[in-house]
Amino acid sequence: PSPPPPYPSGPVRAPSRSRSLTVLPVRNRNRSLSIRSKKDDGSTTGSTATKATPRHRFTMSSLRGMQQPELSRKLYKLIKSENHAIGAYELAGRERGSIATQLSEWGEATNDDAISDVSDKLGVLMSEIGEQEDLFAQSLEDYRGILKQIRNTESSVQPSRDHKAKVSDEIAKLKYKEPQSTKIVQLEQELVRAEAQSLVAEAQLTNITRQKFKEAYDVHFAAIIERAEKQALLAKHARAVLNLLDDAPIVPGESHPEYEGVEPGRNILNAAEDELRAWRPTCAPIASNAGHLGAGAMPASSAVPAGAG
Q1: What is the CATH number of the domain that holds 237?
Q2: What is the mean pLDDT of the chain?
Q3: Considering the domain boundaries, does residue 192 fall inside one?
Q4: How many CB atoms within 10 Å of residue 258?
Q5: Cα separation of 161 and 195, whole Å?
Q6: How many separate domains does the chain show?
Q7: Relative to the CA of 253, which of 29, 170, 184, 242 has its CA 20 to 30 Å away?
C-alpha cells in the first residue's frame, strides 16, 4: 500500500473580522447615537433577539465521535466541546444586545430626561460590548478549523499504524506456530515497507501537529486579547457616560438642575467609536518556522525516505 497522502488544505475560509492581526471595520457611527427601536419600522427588540436560531444545531456528532479512529478521538472531542463554547459566546452576545435594548427602553419610560439619555447611551455601548462576543466567536471558529487539520491528519495516520501492527502480529504468530513457514519472509518484507510508510506518515503527523497547534492557539489567544481590550475600551467610555448623571439627593418639591449631558454624551460615544476604529494589536507575534514546510508536510529541502513509495 502507498503512504497516506499529504493532508489537503480543504476549502478556503473567509477571514474572520476578528482574526489575529486583522483590524475590524467599524459600522456607521453609533447607529444614530441611540439603541432605541423605531416604533414604526416593524423591527423586533427585547427578548426576541435571543430566540434567533443558533448556528450550532444538534447533529449525530456523538455517533460520529465513536466512529473516529482512536488516534483522533481526543481531539475530535475537544473540537466538539469548543463548538458548544462558541454557541455560548454567540448566545451571550445576543443576550447582551437584548439587555442593552431593555435598559434603553426602561430609561425612556422613567420620564427622567437624564436617566433616559444616559441609559440610551449606555445601551449603545453595551450593545457594542455584546457585538465583541460574536466577533470573538468568529475567531474561535477559525481556531477550530485549524485544529480540524490536525484531527484529519491523525485520522489519516491511523491506518498506517494499524497495518504495521497487523503485519507484526502475523509474523509473531507464524514464528510461534510455523517457524519454518516461507510466508514469514514475505511478511518481513511487507513489514519493512510498512515501517517505511509509517515513518513518512509519522513525520507528516508531527510536522502538521506542531505547525497547526501553534497556529490555532495563536489565533485563539490573539482573539481573547482583542476582545478584552476592546470591551475594556468600551467599558471605560460607559463609565464616562455614567458620570454625566447627577445623583445628588433632592427634597420634596425640588427639581434637579436641567440635564446638560446630551452633547457631552454624544462626544463620548464618538470618541469610543474612534478609538475602536483606531485599535491595533500590540501583543508580540508568535514566532513560526512553518514557512519551511513543503509538499507532503515535509521540510522544503528534504527528500522522502527511500522505500516510502
Answers
A1: 1.20.1270.60
A2: 80
A3: yes
A4: 7
A5: 9
A6: 1
A7: 242
Say if 124 falls within a structural domain.
Answer: yes
Q: What is the pLDDT of residues 60-74, one digit of tens each?
A: 555 455 566 777 799
Check residue 162 and give its pLDDT: 75
For residue 138, what pLDDT is reported?
95
Domain that holds residue 132: 69-246+262-281
pLDDT band, very low/low/confident/very high, at 58 (cuts 50, 70, 90): low
C-alpha cell at 201: 506518515
Q: What gap in Å lies between CA 122 and CA 108, rounded to an integer? A: 12
In this prediction the pTM is 0.70
Note whether residue 159 is domain-resident: yes
Which residue type sits at 306? A
Residue 17 lies in a domain: no
**What secondary structure, in 3-state letters, does the chain show?**
CCCCCCCCCCCCCCCCCCCCCCCCCCCCHHHHHCCCCCCCCCCCCHHHHHHCCCCCCCCCHHHHHHHCCHHHHHHHHHHHHHHHHHHHHHHHHHHHHHHHHHHHHHHHHCCCHHHHHHHHHHHHHHHHHHHHHHHHHHHHHHHHHHHHHHHHHHHHHHHHHHHHHHHHHHHHHHHHHCCCCCHHHHHHHHHHHHHHHHHHHHHHHHHHHHHHHHHHHHHHHHHHHHHHHHHHHHHHHHHHHHCCCCCCCCCCCCCCCCCCCHHHHHHHHHHHHHHHHHCCCCCCCCCCCHHHECHHHCECCCCCCCCCC
Task: Name, in order, each residue with C-beta under 8 angstroms of 67's C-beta and a sequence gap of 6 or more.
Answer: none
Q: What is the identity of the amino acid at 98?
A: S
